[in-house]
């Protein structure tokens, strides 16, 4: 590789500053990880690198006219944040603007200057400096002076950029037009997929907010029973009064356990809406309490699981509908898996239910 004298001087300066660049890379990664964690931002990937000497020499060989000093090359140190969705790039960029000093004149939003076959280069590129208020090392003041590049792109954009880089970009062999056309078509498909993933996520999040509002407002008959609506419903502690009443049998306490396993049970009991669960509570709470009286009588048990309320409601519902011991066995298998003990437990509960005329 033949370089002019100016490029050779730049390379020599690069070699001298290489330890500083490596330190910068470590600091940048640490700052980004900490800031993302503090702001509860989950990303697909976070990486940083120092440009290799070979890569830097190749860049100068192609564009030596652009660089008069090493300072002119702003991507010797580079970091990249990869988001799951394309619309999250703007969220990450807002965080970066709070974290670093941005060189706006040299920063580029390549999303606004995209050629039709360059989907993977939609990245937002910021040229940044680390402010002294964020990190300072008196022994290495250059860390706050040297600029670095921060790229932000989605996962699909990142995958395409890597594949295109490997197949075509910077290749020594010109790609035939028929292959370029196929790659352009694929780029369009990926761009559409990227946009649709973001769109679908927005719609799902909007739906979740809507059903949460409906649940909170008590419009239970209008709320279909699904995993999201049941989870929102549980936040209202709908079985709390019954659980407390059952615990009071032995002047006990209630400990909260996970009720999500009952979601599938309620579906199999043909509950279609949250309103169906509310009606079950209203119709069978007293019978569920009477059953608990027999179950806890003489036990002295003073700690009761929150789930005992919904479990007894389900037991009463099953018995009232005439599903008998077999129905109880299916309930316990759905909750706890197959076990020979379920048959004995179902038989005991069936006999207890007879005593309070549930059967």
Characteristic terms for this protein:
8 strands, alpha/beta, Beta Polymerase, domain 2, two-stranded parallel ribbon, 2 domains, six-stranded mixed beta sheet
Can you give a write-up of this model?
The chain is α/β, with parallel strands linked by helices and 359 residues long. The protein folds into 2 domains: 5-173, Beta Polymerase, domain 2, CATH 3.30.460.10; 236-355, no CATH class. The strands form 2 sheets. Strands 1, 2, 3, 4, 5 and 6 form a 6-stranded mixed sheet that branches. Strands 7-8 form a two-stranded parallel sheet. The longest helix is centred in the middle third of the chain and has 40 residues, at 177-216. α1 (5-38) packs across α2. The protein has 12 helices and 8 strands. It has helices at residues 5-38, 53-63, 89-99, 155-167, 177-216, 227-234, 240-247, 262-268, 274-296, 307-320, 324-336, 341-355; strands at residues 45-50, 77-83, 101-102, 108-109, 124-129, 148-154, 253-255, 303-305.
| Coarse structural class | alpha/beta
Radius of gyration equals 32 Å
How would a crystallographer describe the biggest sheet? Answer: 6 strands, mixed
**Architecture of the largest domain, CATH level 2?**
2-Layer Sandwich
State the order of secondary-structure elements, H for helix, E for strand: HEHEHEEEEHHHHEHHEHHH
Structure summary, number of beta strands:
8
Reading off the top of the CATH hierarchy, the class of the largest domain is best stated as: Alpha Beta
How many helices does DSSP assign? 12
Straight-line N-to-C gap: 92 Å
- CATH topology-level fold name of the largest domain: Beta Polymerase, domain 2
Number of domains: 2
Residue-averaged pLDDT, rounded?
88
Q: Poorly predicted ranges (pLDDT <50, ≥5 residues)?
A: none
Principal-axis shape equals elongated
How helical, in percent, are the residues?
40-55%
């Amino acid at each position: 590789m033949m370089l002019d004298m100016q490029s050779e001087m730049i390379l020599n300066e690069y070699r001298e500053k290489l330890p500083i660049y490596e330190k910068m890379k470590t600091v940048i990664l640490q700052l980004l990880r900490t800031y993302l964690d503090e702001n509860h931002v989950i990303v697909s990937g976070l990486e940083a690198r120092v440009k290799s000497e070979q890569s830097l020499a190749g860049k100068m060989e192609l564009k030596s006219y652009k660089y008069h000093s090493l300072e002119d090359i702003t991507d010797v140190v580079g970091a990249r944040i990869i988001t799951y969705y394309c619309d999250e790039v703007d969220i990450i960029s807002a965080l970066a603007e709070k974290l670093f000093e941005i060189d706006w004149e040299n920063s580029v939003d390549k999303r606004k200057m995209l050629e039709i076959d360059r989907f993977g280069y939609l990245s937002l590129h910021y040229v940044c400096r680390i402010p002294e208020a964020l990190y300072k090392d008196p022994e290495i003041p250059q860390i706050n002076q040297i600029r670095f590049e921060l790229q932000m792109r989605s996962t699909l954009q990142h995958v395409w950029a890597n594949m295109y880089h490997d197949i075509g970009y910077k290749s020594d062999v010109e790609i035939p037009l028929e292959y370029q056309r196929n790659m352009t078509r694929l780029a369009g498909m990926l761009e559409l997929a990227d946009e649709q993933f973001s769109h679908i996520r927005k719609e799902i999040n909007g739906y979740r907010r809507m059903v949460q509002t409906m649940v909170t407002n008590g419009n239970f008959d209008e709320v279909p029973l699904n995993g999201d609506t049941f989870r929102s419903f549980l936040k209202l502690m709908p079985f709390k009064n019954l659980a407390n009443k059952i615990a009071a049998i032995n002047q006990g306490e209630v400990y909260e356990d996970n009720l999500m396993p009952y979601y599938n049970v309620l579906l199999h009991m043909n509950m279609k809406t949250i309103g169906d669960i509310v009606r079950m509570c209203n119709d069978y709470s007293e019978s569920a309490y009477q059953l608990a009286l027999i179950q806890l009588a003489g036990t002295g048990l003073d700690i009761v699981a929150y789930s005992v309320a919904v479990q007894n409601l389900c037991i009463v519902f099953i018995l009232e509908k005439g599903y008998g011991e077999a129905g109880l066995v299916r309930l316990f298998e759905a909750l706890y898996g197959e076990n020979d003990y379920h048959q004995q437990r179902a038989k005991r509960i069936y006999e207890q239910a007879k005593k309070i005329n549930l059967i």
